[in-house]
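Students often ask why we bother encoding 3D structure as a string. The short answer is that it lets us treat folding as translation between two languages. Here is a chain of 296 residues written in the first language.
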Amino acid sequence: MSKCIVHIGMHKTGSTSIQRSLYAHLPDQRFRYISIKGSNQSMPLMALFGRSSESSRGPGGRLLAAYSRNFELALRNCKNRIGIISGEAISTLPASGLRQMHEQLSRHFRTIEAVAYIRSPKAYLESAFQQRVKAGFKHFKLDVVWPRYRHRFEKFDTLFQRDHVSLWKFDPPSFVGRDVVLDYCHRLGIDFPPDGSIRVNESLSSSAVKLLHTYFKYRSEPDSASAPAGADAALTRKLMTLPGPKFHLSSELIAPLMQRHESDIRWMEERLGATLDEGKCSINRILVEMQPISEA
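And here it is in the second language, the structure alphabet:
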């Protein structure tokens, strides 16, 4: 019986790099990376503990049973080591599902902690916009992807107890080696080689975002019988190589949204013990690196 560290994201904070790096190579034998399937445990844990769990019958039921077996086996295999389980979607689990997951972990570990990097609202919205553009969304409403800090994280303080929940500001310039993987390992006391990080950069330049957004918004619906398989994904991968300045949403566009969610921002800043104001994203200043994209 030892300790389990549950890495809960948040989304858009280098989670994929952390997951792939530790899944591929975790040399510190005091720790064990818990895998139900692959490096990111979001999908299996959402299936097991989410509000919309898959049916217990048919193919979905068999998959769910496999996830359950794999999870229990992975927990048992930790033995006396510190377990690490990572999935940014864990932060979106309902309280009831999170409680069930915590109860299962408690049967194997004496102590359970949750950790997360917290991204500022503007940077989060910019990453979320890019993700939706890459997914082919034609329209985008900023309110839909607001990070909902309090809704997402307060339940961990309640269920895990606040002194077992660590929230860190996502601030790459201040990271150990300016590397989120090395910073994460340093915070948790994991011995990890400086050159062992698997860096995953899924961001697009401003020009690439504009081109891809325009393409999906105005193209005619493809004929599934004639459209080449993977053409959209191939286009996205190609545009990821397009150089240019970083993509930013206009502060003029997001100012009303930040005003509406001011209490949510203040709650997280108090909980985090740090400001989430990037300076350049103050609601009283205008950033015009690109023309505002309509919410509609």
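Translate back mentally: The beta strands are 2-7, 31-33, 82-86, 109-118, 165-169. Keep this in mind for the problem set.
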